[in-house]
Amino acid sequence: MNRWPLLTDLVSAFKARGQIVIVGASLAGLRGAEALRNAGFSGHLTIIGDEPHEPYDRPPLSKQVLAGWVPADHTKLPRLRAIDAEWRLGVAATGLDRANQRVRLADGDQVPFDRLLIATGTRARQWPNPAEAALDGVFTLRTCDEAARVRARLAARPNRVLIIGAGFIGSEMASVCRELDLPVTVAERGSAPLVGALGGAIGAIAAEIQREHGVDLRTGVSVAALEGDDGGHVRRAYLSDGTTVDADVVIVSLGSIRNTEWLDGAGLAAGFWGVACDAGCRAFDINGVVTDTIFVAGDVARFPHALYEYQLIALEHWDNAVRGAEIAAHNMVSLEAERWAHLPLPAFWSNQFGLNIKSVGVCPFGEEIVFTQGSVKERRFAAAYGRRGRIVAAVTFNHAKWLEYYAAQIERSAPFPPAPAGFDQPGDMKPVPAAFPDPRTPTATPVVVLTGHDPTERGAVFHVPDR
Amino acid sequence: MRIVVDLNRCQGYAQCAFLAPDVFQLNGEEALMYDPNPDDAKRLQVLRAAEACPVKAIVVERPVDAEGATKS
To answer: Domains in chain A, ordered, with CATH?
Structure first.
């Protein structure tokens, strides 16, 4: 028996007649809406999205879509139930009025809410020079419209594609170019592809793989300038080492920017790394006080994680969007005793150069890496990351079936190096430095970031592991 | 029709690629590529593939009836 029947009545009334607004109409927004209805919310639900499209899946854009196997408008997300929502698509949210509980829209409308779910995600970081970015043939890849434009250019068989940034998406796009037998140059400021996410030990392998597949990989260089011809088409890039690359398609793949500008002045703990929230997805205000009405999910959320010393973590991962939205939705319509915590074991995948790359945990939290199964030479292996004698992450290349073994160890902070798994162990199982770059060095922003303990920290302060 | 594959779950068993080869393909030994919005004519193939997936990674849209309720 609840000691406070008033509160129970309040939640029941809210579920029947309340108003919920979801800002962000992508994976997290959609799954959050479905979860609200599953939880019995039958009040008014509004979903606001700046893109004109209904929710679609983004991971295929840099793979199947770019390769031409699937059209760019064919990645619409399956609906898992009816959500009976009012959709406001093609209109961005431009402000949040917390005192009056309203979301302001770009078209001047205001949408009132009792509870708000922020799921505005990220956008592609643009080339910093606006004149060069405006050259014909210079692209970024985040939306299906962008994917359609890039695909059309690749189908027209350019003489050379230049990809700036060798993170996961940049590397996937380089892989597609080689599948299409297009000449491609990849310019990466770091020492190797994937170095920010997986470290230098794995990055060296990724570099070998790219070169084996015919990628002209340039590492340790930045692109100083892009040059266009008289018609305004990009034709050449000048690199920091004094060399030039003639390319008629340039894809800028320098990571993402979190969409928090619309929250300026709202008094939330929102900034460079996203919107800080507790492990139950409730947003913090700028003083670190948790709100009762505003929830956060997906790429834009930054939440404390027990496995990583309770630092706030920002995760641009597919399952973080799904699970975070489900948990936020549940907590939006639940009393305290029924609330859930969002404590996911981070996990992601990437398909490139015919390889299935998967990871669990937070690799950059690791100081050492040990190859535990398979063969690096044959490009099928598992490796574990360790920090101060415990396992914190693992990565597999074409060895996905073993990932669960490592996930279970990470979840219970098992010793590092981990006990040998299965068979097929390499001869040398000595940990070596994982070789992550200093996270403060400029490169594509990594997709997993431990951002320290302060929920109100709005600036770009990285956690730097002790070394 | 609309599908999505939870590639965190997928372990490359490739049952789907045998049962619905126009929709699911392996790129290399275990990297799955698929068509997220295949033609409705492939529905039966896709449902068989989803059913056969050992790790239940394939999520298929459930049709919604006129009242907005989902059918199984």
So the answer is: 5-123+257-338 (3.50.50.60), 130-254 (3.50.50.60), 347-449 (3.30.390.30)
Instruction: Give me the domains of chain B, ranges plus CATH numbers.
Output: 3-60 (3.30.70.20)
- Residue A66: closest CA among A195, A153, A163: A153
Q: What pLDDT score was predicted for residue B66? A: 43
What distance in Å separates the CA atoms of residue A248 and residue A233, rounded to the nearest whole number?
A: 7
Q: Which residue of B has its CA nearest to A350?
A: B31
Share of chain A above pLDDT 70, in %: 95
User: Where residue B25 falls among pLDDT bands split at 50, 70, 90?
Assistant: very high
pTM of this structure? 0.94
User: Distances in Å between the alpha carbon of A89 and those of A23, A51, A97, A155, A360?
Assistant: 10, 6, 20, 30, 34
Residues belonging to chain A with any Cβ–Cβ distance to chain B shorter than 8 Å: 57, 59-60, 63-64, 67, 69-70, 74-82, 84, 318-319, 347-349, 351-356, 358, 380, 398, 400-401, 403
pLDDT score of B71 more than 50: no
Closest CA to A80 of B59, B49, B56, B19: B59
